[in-house]
Amino acid sequence: MKKILLVLPVLLLLQASQSHASFDEDQRRYLTGEEIVWSLGQLLPLTQDCNGIDGSMNSQTTNDTKLGLDSAITGKPVSSGPTQATIQWITSCVQKAFSQSNICQESGQVHLQALLGKEALALVDAPYQVAMSDDSICYSHMSEKWSTWTPEHQQILIKGMVLSFLGPDSVIMDFGLIKNVDSFRQALLQDLNAKGPALTVQDAIRILAENLSIRDEFLSY
Amino acid sequence: MKSFIKIALASCLVLGATNVYAANLQDESYFYKISKALRGVAPSAAERSAFEEAASKGQTDQFLQVKIQEFTKTPQFAVKLKQKVDELFYFNTSPNLPGTSVAGQTSNYDSHFIPQSAYDNLVMSVASNNRSWDQLLVDKTYQVSTEDNSGDNESNFYQIALTDTSTPQSLLKSSLITSNSSYDPSTWKSIVFPEGDLRVAGTITTPRFFGRFANTALNKNRRRASTVFRIFLCDAMTPAVPTHDAATEAGNLNLAFPDHKNFTEGQIRQQVTQDVHGQLPDCRACHYKLDPMGQTFGFSAASLAPMPAPGALAFHGADNRNVNIPVKGLGELAQRITEQPEYASCQVQHFWNWYVGRDVFVSKTRQQELVQKFDQLGRKPQDFVAYLVTTPEFRAKSENLTEDQLLSRKAVSILQNCVNCHQNEPQSGDMKYWDLTSLPYADTPEFRQYAIDRLDFALDITGDGSKRIMPPPDSMWKLSNDDYQVLRKWILHGAPDFQGTLQVPARGGQ
Predict the structure, then answer these.
(1) More confident residue, B30 or B217
(2) Do A23 and B359 touch (CB under 8 A)?
(3) CB of A58 within 8 Å of any CB in chain B?
(4) B471 prior amide bond cis, ω within 30
(5) Counting beta carbons within 10 angstroms of the beta carbon of residue A70, is it exposed (0 to 12), middle (13 to 18) or buried (19 or more)?
């Protein structure tokens, strides 16, 4: 199962690049590793070790590949686009940001607002506005089963997260990879609902963040 | 009326066929692209709301103009630009990733830049203070750290040039060493050389540049010279391919293994002491440029030379003019480089590649317009980038390339290998070896056909490749089977240019 989840994002990226008759990767301007951290940091409480750097002595090439850097020897990018290592790094950053002790702390709650959007946060459940000041209530809501939420609330949350990560519908359409944003959001909803009854709200938010943070619309322009 | 309609329709088709980037991004998409291109992040929720409010009042254009100016003044913009310069210098660009953020705030991003060296501080000062881009070459002020060993080395790098007693007093009089309290008063200091100092030249007289491009006594600073040519004049200095014939091969063998029986010992000793490096005809193609510039680096190995070293700026200009300017030192060399049109067009090309895209075609005419704008804006990076992101090419929504447009790009990427070797050959009425990447090859159909036929003959593209005369057998680059297939298809399709327009009639077939 884990392997499928690992392969799926790669397939999404591959699909993204195949949809353009481009001259290699030139038509897609990817953010640098540092900019990816900046962008994730706007939405998630990143942890200290989300730096993509392997501390071992002989890992410069690995780091360069992961972070999309140029080789100092050739002056050319080590990789023409995000690699599997890049995807693993980004998803690990997202997973660590959602650790129980992090997302409901004060700084994490402020990110939650940026992550879900005011509308989603306000419409999902009014007590959430009160809950932001109380960690235990935040934890409680995060622990609820995703299946207990109404479809309307589920869609509002998904819409808010897509807006935060990828932008408004007009921007997504202009990017050209997603032809119908409603269908895309519906596909995300179906994917979450297929995860089973054990899925919690926090799991759902985390999975959405993982999926959206490795899309070309988020990583490039 | 019917004729008019036909002409109008035909014009629309032609325009549509020749313009790959026909549609523009919508305003909000353009806002997203500006934000990511200039500072590396998408607009925040608050910025999106501000945009929507401006749009509702019909003030989108003014809003975007304000945001462009604002984004170019952010620390993130300066950090991004510095990273691009680092890549240009082939410096290690490992980023500083703290892995933390502060509740979506962007004001702490300036802490991501940690001054480490004189080079770092100089580039950041140009990027963040909107100083002229020429300062990368002509600046005479450095901020160096004295906190750790690397800082001590940087101070020593300049110290020798300042304290050498043989230096004429006039050069020392205005040199200052002061304390600078930007970060810690005890750990940083400014080193200021006089305005006309012949020994100092911005980034190329920094310890980092000297350390990255170390030289030997044999190499005589040619490596540093080639780097200066690559970065500031866009001259790649590809190794020359020697001619391959029996006479040349015999001559090379005689050089390597001279016939001692016919030489006296004195003659042998004299021959050994001659420096043949860089003297052979094929080598001269690059060495006539490298050697005079390498001389200006003088004896600067681990430290800045106390005395300027004379040399020259020599190269073959784009308009066939021979540039050969004697200079008294690196400082004057740097100044002369900034005065060359090739320098301006090269730097404009860098900015175009960074912000608009390497894949976005820019004609010679368009490049001249951009160079004029670059000069008009005082060569200031923030202002020029702010202009670039308002160009139609930046705002254009990239469309899928047609098969012929993609084919032309693939063919040119292969033919670039030919240009790398042949670019230094003198232009003749024959095949433009040095310009195989500039499509179309000529204005007249007859010469375009001639050019394609010559290319086909040299590489035996439409044959089986067995009769090819290029690349030479001992060339470091060889055409692969895939390369042949691409070039064959390109020629059979009529050698389309970047817009997909056929240069010659298509022959059909694959």
Answers:
(1) B30
(2) yes
(3) no
(4) yes
(5) buried
CB B492 within 8 Å of CB B510: yes
DSSP string, chain A: -HHHHHHHHHHHHHHHHHTS--STTTTS-BPPHHHHHHHHHHHS---TTTT----STT-HHHHHHHHTPBPTTTSSBSSSS--HHHHHHHHHHHHHHTSHHHHTSHHHHHHHHHHH-HHHHHHH-THHHHHTT-HHHHHHHHHSBGGGS-HHHHHHHHHHHHHHHH--HHHHHHHSS-S-HHHHHHHHHHHHHTT-TT-BHHHHHHHHHHHHHTSHHHHB-
The shortest C-alpha distance from B205 to chain A (Å) reads 19
Residue B510 and residue B446 in contact, taking contact as beta carbons nearer than 8 Å: no
**Residue B369 in tokens:** 């317009």
ipTM of predicted complex: 0.82
Please report the pLDDT score of residue B20 as a whole number.
46
Q: B29-50 as b/e, with b when 16 or more CB fall inside 10 Å?
A: bbbbbbbbbbbbbbbbbebbeb
**A107/B102 Cβ within 8 A:** yes
Q: Would you say residue A172 has pLDDT above 90? A: yes
**Is B48 an 8 Å CB contact of chain A?**
yes
pLDDT of residue B111: 42
Q: Are A218 and A165 in contact (CB under 8 A)?
A: yes
Quote the tokens at residue B487: 């070039």
B429 near A CB under 8 A: no
Residues A59-110: pLDDT tens digits? 455 556 666 667 667 667 767 677 888 888 889 888 888 875 566 666 666 6
What are phi and psi for residue B122, nearest 5 degrees? -65, -45
Confidence of residue B244 (pLDDT cuts 50, 70, 90): low
- CA of B139 vs chain A CAs: smallest distance (Å): 25
Higher pLDDT among residues A189 and B409, named by residue = A189
Mean pLDDT calculated for residue range B19-31: 77
Selected residue of A93, A174, A220 to mutate for chain B interface (largest B Cβ count, 10 A): A174
Cβ-based neighbours of B86, under 8 Å, separated by 6 or more:
B92, B93, B123
Q: Give the CA distances from residue B129 to residues B73, B77, B124, B182, B198, in Å, rounded to whole numbers and listed in that order.
A: 8, 11, 8, 15, 25
- Distance, CA of B405 to CA of B394 (rounded, Å): 19
pLDDT at position B182 is 39
